[in-house]
């Protein structure tokens, strides 16, 4: 069957469209998309802007009233003439602290709740499993931590302060203009320069370093994780020095970018200070000229100058925020790179449906049993075709195979034959582009992926062992299991003796990725965990791929013994122990080229017989 001749079903076409899509090109700036994440709490952020404006306005008014009070007191008026200003000074001092506290409370609460929602969305997306494999582990950690936290930085520092500055700065300019028009215009010009021109220039200067900073942070995290977790192999192959040099290079690059970022921040702070000084001097000179002309009082001059000085407190943080926008935007792009990653498994047309019962009497979703065909059929793969892109060769082409209830079937073939792709489809990590996979007569693409994985589970070639105890690793599959059931599963995979010899038995810590266990023990522990889930079909995908020959033969024998009574599909390139399986399928270049028992295939001319002789 040629690749071009394979038609695609509607479900397969939809899945293929998901495979071929690229992460996110919604046409919107990541900054606006990050702000949109806060839409459910927009009222809180509006309240935060109002409180922030009141806080900065109280600070400006406090200095203005204090200036009037001091200048007026110098004229020795009756004390009653100063009482209102005295009370106002106290009130503004209190309101400044209270409103600032409330503004931080409201905006940080809203930002943290939004950040929690974003993290939940990211974890929900990653919980579908498929996207995890598209990112390197260190880079994924950086996306989960630093790039996700960029949302908080934008909402707390990049949203509330600029809006509050517009409200308070506009009010200050209006007030000063009422006092003295030239002074108010000078203040307005200074605030526009310090609060708009300088931040825009700082944003332009910080855009490239910010983009490079996010990527450099991810590279450093990747280099560190690769070095730490790959240390034994790196030492064994004499590559540790190169790995450490890579970490140092990534750290130096991040340091250079940080220095550039610090220079931009220093430029912003210095420019604002310069503009502040020039504006205050300008308003002072204009005010002095007005006083000498007799159109302006000395008390009003003090109020004008100190109000102008206090007004720049409003815009002082803005250049630093603007300089970080490049880094925040790059973090947003990396964040949405996860959220926008298209799924490899399309959602079922009717979410929530339950698979038909194992007895073939129909599903528990109220169906009439038509999905099951009225009889237990086991696992059946019909004309399965899969490829990873429209221009890519077919990884699987028209594959047909079956696993009858209680039987053991092996799929063998050379590396790159499509065996792991078959396992990915069976475990619902990919959708078929054409053909079907049926469990007891039910098309598995019509059911939720987790529902299928509860019935079809297995042991991958590199099973994940969590950094916890033996007990907790086992109970992931069956949380309600008591110790007797755990020991029964360990006995079945011939691991109970090793666990009993451990210092704390079931409570022994296995280390990160199970590093305190041997390769064979990790495989047995993963199989025991799979058996506790009581699956209908057990898929063993290259379970001995990383083991030495002696250990490999023993583990294969133990796995097949433990899997007796289950419908088992063993995917492997190793032919040891296959005389114990019922049927062997040989796959080459994505197609089934031979089918038979071990003895039958050993007597036929083909890949299987040649592999036996090697």
UniProtKB/TrEMBL annotation:
Keywords (A to Z) from UniProt: ATP-binding, Membrane, Nucleotide-binding, Transmembrane, Transmembrane helix
Pfam families (alphabetical): ABC_membrane, ABC_tran
InterPro entries reported in the protein's UniProt record: AAA+_ATPase (IPR003593), ABC1_TM_dom (IPR011527), ABC1_TM_sf (IPR036640), ABC_CydC/D (IPR014223), ABC_transporter-like_ATP-bd (IPR003439), ABC_transporter-like_CS (IPR017871), P-loop_NTPase (IPR027417), Type_1_exporter (IPR039421)
Bilayer-crossing regions: 45-71, 77-94, 163-181, 187-205, 264-290, 296-316
Ranges of compositional bias, category Gly residues: 360-375
Membrane topology: Multi-pass membrane protein
Domain ABC transmembrane type-1: 46-330
Residues covered by region (Disordered): 1-26, 339-375
Name this polypeptide is given: ATP-binding cassette, subfamily C, CydC
């Amino acid at each position: 069957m040629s690749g071009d001749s394979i038609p695609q079903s509607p479900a397969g076409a939809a899945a293929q469209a998901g495979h071929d899509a690229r992460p996110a090109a919604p046409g919107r700036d990541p900054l606006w998309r990050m702000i949109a994440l806060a839409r459910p709490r927009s009222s809180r952020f509006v309240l935060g802007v109002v409180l922030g404006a009141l806080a900065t306005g109280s600070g400006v008014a406090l200095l203005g009233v204090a200036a009037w009070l001091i200048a007026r007191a110098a004229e020795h008026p009756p004390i009653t003439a100063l009482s209102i200003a005295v009370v106002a000074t106290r009130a503004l001092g209190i309101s400044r602290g209270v409103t600032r506290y409330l503004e931080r409370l409201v905006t940080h609460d809203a930002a943290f709740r939004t950040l929690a929602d974003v993290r939940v969305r990211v974890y929900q997306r990653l919980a579908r499993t498929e996207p995890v494999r598209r990112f390197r582990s260190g880079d994924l950690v950086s996306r989960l931590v630093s790039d996700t936290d960029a949302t908080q930085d934008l909402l707390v520092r990049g949203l509330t302060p600029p809006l509050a500055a517009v409200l308070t700065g506009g009010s200050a300019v209006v007030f000063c203009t009422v006092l003295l028009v030239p002074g108010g215009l000078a203040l307005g010009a200074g605030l526009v320069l310090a609060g708009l021109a300088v931040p825009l220039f700082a944003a332009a200067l910080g855009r490239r370093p910010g983009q490079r900073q996010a990527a450099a942070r991810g590279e450093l995290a990747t280099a560190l994780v690769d070095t730490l977790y790959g240390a034994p192999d790196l030492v064994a192959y004499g590559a540790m020095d190169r790995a450490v040099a890579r970490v140092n290079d990534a750290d130096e690059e991040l340091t250079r970018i940080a220095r550039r970022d610090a220079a931009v921040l220093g430029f912003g702070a210095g420019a604002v200070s310069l503009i502040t000084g020039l504006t205050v001097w300008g308003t002072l000179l204009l005010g002095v000229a007005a006083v000498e002309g007799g159109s302006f009082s000395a008390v009003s001059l003090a109020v004008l100058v100190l109000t102008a000085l206090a007004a720049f407190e409003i815009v002082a943080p803005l250049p630093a925020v603007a300089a970080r926008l490049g880094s925040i935007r790059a973090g947003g792009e990396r964040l949405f790179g996860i959220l926008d990653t298209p799924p490899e498994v399309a959602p079922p047309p009717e979410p929530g449906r339950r698979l038909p019962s194992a007895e073939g009497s129909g599903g528990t979703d109220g169906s009439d049993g038509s999905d099951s065909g009225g009889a237990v059929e086991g696992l059946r793969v019909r004309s399965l075709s899969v490829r990873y892109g429209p221009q890519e060769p077919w990884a699987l082409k028209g594959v047909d195979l079956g696993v009858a209830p209680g039987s053991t079937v092996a799929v063998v073939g050379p590396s790159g034959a499509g065996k792991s792709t078959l396992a990915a489809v069976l475990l619902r990590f990919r959708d078929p582009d054409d053909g079907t996979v049926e469990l007891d007569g039910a098309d598995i693409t019509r059911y939720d992926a987790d529902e299928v994985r509860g019935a079809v589970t297995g042991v991958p070639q590199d099973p994940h062992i969590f950094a916890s105890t033996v007990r907790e690793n086992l109970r992931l599959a069956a949380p309600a299991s008591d110790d007797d059931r755990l020991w029964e599963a360990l006995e079945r995979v011939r691991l109970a003796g090793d666990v009993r010899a451990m210092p704390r038995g079931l409570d022994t810590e296995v280390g990160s990725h199970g590093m305190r266990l041997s390769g064979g023990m990790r495989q047995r522990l993963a199989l025991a965990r799979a058996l506790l889930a009581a699956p209908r079909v057990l898929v063993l995908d290259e379970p001995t791929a990383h083991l030495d020959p002696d250990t490999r033969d023993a583990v294969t024998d133990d796995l097949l013994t433990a899997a007796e009574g289950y419908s088992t599909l063993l995917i492997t390139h190793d032919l040891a122990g296959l005389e114990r399986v019922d049927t062997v399928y040989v796959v080459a270049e994505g197609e089934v080229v031979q089918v038979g028992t071990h003895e039958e295939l050993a007597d036929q001319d083909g890949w299987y017989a040649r592999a036996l002789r090697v």
